[in-house]
Amino acid sequence: MAESTTADLGPGWLVTRALDGGLDLRVSQRGRNWVVAATAVVTLGWIARTLHAGATGQPLPLGSSPPLAAGIALLLTGVALWCAFGSETWHVAPNRLEHGVGIGHWRHVRRYHDATLEIAGGTDQYGRPYFRLYVVSGDGRHFLLERDLAELNALASCIAIQTGWRRRDVA
User: Fold this and answer.
1) What is the distance between the terminal CA atoms of the chain, rounded to a whole angstrom?
2) Long-range contacts at 155-160 (CB < 8 A, ≥ 24 apart)
3) Of 119, 111, 105, nearest in space to 91 by CA
4) For residue 1, what pLDDT is reported?
5) 124 near 130, Cβ under 8 Å?
6) CA 149 to chain centroid
7) What is the value of pTM for the model shown?
8) What is the pLDDT of residue 12?
9) Three-state DSSP class for residue 51
10) Residues contacting residue 50 through CB under 8 Å, at least 6 positions apart
11) Is the pLDDT score of 3 beyond 90?
């Protein structure tokens, strides 16, 4: 596939050639620093406020119980770690798509073969349109990504060319 594929997906995507001749796709980390900083500040603020309240005998934040405050701290820590180190990748090759989500080597990978790509659209409860990319295979319909229609069309075209799969758009 020509290098123009990279430009067709837009600046939010990193596309590299894989050793098997396929493509590795990844959402760019660009602009993520603000999200990481915000989640870290909220997490550290919650933990500091909880520890201070516990040490001084004051009520815990939001009037929570100690187990709930600890649970919220763990949840916020997990969100901060995911924002800082989490990744979502796609490996695309002839008749194969691998969708991986995780942190480093600790990840869940779902593999698809002999499938069809589908872009489906709808409106949310506020009347705003949304568009989603699915893989339809023998074991059902699997959600891949939600983006604007132009970006999903470019991604679906790229995946269809690499895998040889058909597209069935219902948007």
Assistant:
1) 26
2) 155/9, 155/13, 155/25, 156/117, 156/119, 157/8, 158/1, 158/5, 158/8, 158/9, 158/23, 158/25, 158/92, 159/90, 159/92, 159/97, 159/117, 160/117
3) 111
4) 39
5) yes
6) 17
7) 0.75
8) 80
9) helix
10) 60, 61, 69, 70, 73
11) no
Taking the C-alpha atoms of residue 108 and residue 128, their distance in angstroms, rounded to an integer, is: 31
Structure tokens at 78: 């997990």
How is residue 100 written in tokens? 């991986």
Nearest CA to 145 among 22, 30, 13, 6? 13
Q: What phi and psi values does residue 162 have, to the nearest 5 degrees? A: -70, -40
pLDDT above 80 for 86:
yes
What is the enclosing helix (H) or strand (E) of 85? helix 66-85
- Predicted confidence at residue 28, as pLDDT, reads 77
The amino acid at 102: G
Quick check: 4 pLDDT over 50?
A: no
- Name the residue with higher pLDDT: 21 or 81: 81
pLDDT over 90 at 74, yes or no: yes
